[in-house]
Amino acid sequence: MSRPFYVTTPIYYINDVPHLGTAYSTIAADVLRRYHAVRGERTFFLTGTDEHGLKIERVAKERGLAPKAFADEMSAPFRETWPKLACAPDDFIRTTDERHERWAAELWKRVAASGDLYEGTYEGWYCVGCEAYYTEKELAEGNVCATHKTPAERVREPSYFFKLSRYQDRLLELYRDHPSFVAPGSRLNEVKSFVAGGLSDLSVSRTTFSWGVPVPGDPRHVMYVWFDALANYWTVLQDDPERAALWPASLHVVGKDILRFHAIYWPAFLMSAGLPLPEQVFAHGFLTFGGQKMSKSLRNTVKPTALADAFGVDTLRYYLMRAIAFGQDGDFDVHDLVARYNADLGNALGNLLQRVLPFCHRVFEGLVPPDDAPPEEHEALLSGVPESLRMAGEAFATPAPHVALERIWSALRDANAYVDRSAPWDAAKKGDKPRLAGIVVRVLRLLESVSVALWPVMPGKADELRLQLGLGPVSPSVGLDLWPSGATALVAGAKLGEVAALFPRIDPDRQAELIASLGLAPPAPAAVAVAAPSAPAAPAASAPAPGAPQAAAADQPPSIAYDDFAKVDLRVGVVVAAERVPRKDKLLSLRVDLGEAEPRAIVAGLALSFAPEALVGKRVLVVANLEPRTFGKGLVSHGMILASGPSESLTLATVSGEPAAGSRVK
Ligand code: ME8
Q1: pLDDT per residue as tens digits for the range 450-472
Q2: Which of 116, 460, 520, 590 sits most deeply, having the most CB atoms within 10 A of its CB?
């Protein structure tokens, strides 16, 4: 039996309310937990709130409240919000819980017993916003914190230090022997080079304020808030021996801003305490909103529950998991959300059901018809479906939920193409019942499979879909793998449910109404018009040779010396993420793996020819040494992808076989 799947979110600071960013982490963790539950694994999903530290003490004071009263008031909205977003944590930990404080003290004692704590004086810089110590080198001019844009404070106080320096080699070994400890891989490189650069001992207690867990045996000190906070993942399990067996965690889902704490400090504390290490820390990217960083005011505007009320909670979950490649930054664009709702959910999924189910009611008395005369001629269109769904499962496990959804939609595209070609309406018109039955049964069974594969992301809509198929809700149970395997409950004679629109279309008027009701700004006027290259693939036309006729020069560029060609750094790239660029309908924003530490950001005029998801995983040829080119605010391309043809029907230049990302093309 496999180990249980124990997944966590960061525990959120209570100086803020739940916003789209924190909702993103929580939904992602919930999706992954649901996937593992569907696979029959025992699962445990934890979230909570981080309530100690100077930041909270100060905000409480500003509000004229005792810190605990403030914490009680501010923690509640988190606990109440997550179920409204269809997130179902098994426990909600607060760092002010007695159980947490008791076990955090125990963790401290274990670290102390290893001889890893010593008393000293900390003198240096501290950003209260980050609750983090910084060296002068890490701060901008005026000792300003890069994240909060406010000056860090100078601190000098007695403190306990944790001998982090002692763990440098063991941490490097960990990253070497278990490279999946930090994901995505580009983040592992960041962490490795930080640790390889040398680790200083870490101040782990504070004496100039008191809102924290008291240090065992020395109540003048409270624990550094990150020591206390990180401990939550372990403390929550300790009061119950059955739960204690869930340690180590399978996956800590965190934002990239707090990777250092999770990938360096946390494993070092655990090594010191003699405890097993979590299997993986996954750092996802940051959401921007309409291209802007989420400021405090925006965070309050874009309320995830209001979005869920307006568009449906499952639509919000789908959009966040599909439009933003997990592990990378992405933009939340409400217009794109509506476009995806209408196209992906309404047309590709909802409509598919509408294309077949009504026949069952009209022609087969609301029952699953027998399929003893299968319409073989178009079945090949469905032959890739089991493989698409298998790959969707693999992608959820990776974890790459955006890829999983792309695979599911690939199955839906195949099914729609199958319906187009097999034309069940013709069979119905001709009264050819066996043929009609053959077509609809195949599509209904595919939708049955899709309902399970989709359940982790859209539990409500997946169950609504099942209801129309006459099936009960997806109910995971330990030991029972529900992932689509070809088995079906839709046997001849089974009763189907009533037909209803799963995703009623949102027309432009309704869209404008919903967006206005959310108080979201209308789309910003298009930024500086920098035209996408009309044929992004084609190298810039060379100037015609003096005296040469214009047309001939365009068709037949002048010859160049080999040395000139050799200046072009052509590489094989693998597209790891692709998304549309809001308000630029020709452009796609891509991340392309060129074998470098980070995938390259490349903007290409491919959008009229390719759906972004169709490009993910493709090998492309990239001009890797072009000067960066700006396509508007914050949109910079660091390379060019080669393709041929008019912009509506481009063909990508590629290579045969599977050369490694970054391979030189000569
Ligand atoms: O850091 N996009 O809490 P926090 C995506 N208490 N995710 C975002 C985001 C955005 N724009 N903004 C926030 C803390 N997040 C500590 C954690 S854990 C032991 C202690 C998400 O309230 C993302 O997961 O500042 C980020 O890491 C987290 O919220 C920070 O939450």
Answers
A1: 999 999 999 999 999 999 999 99
A2: 590
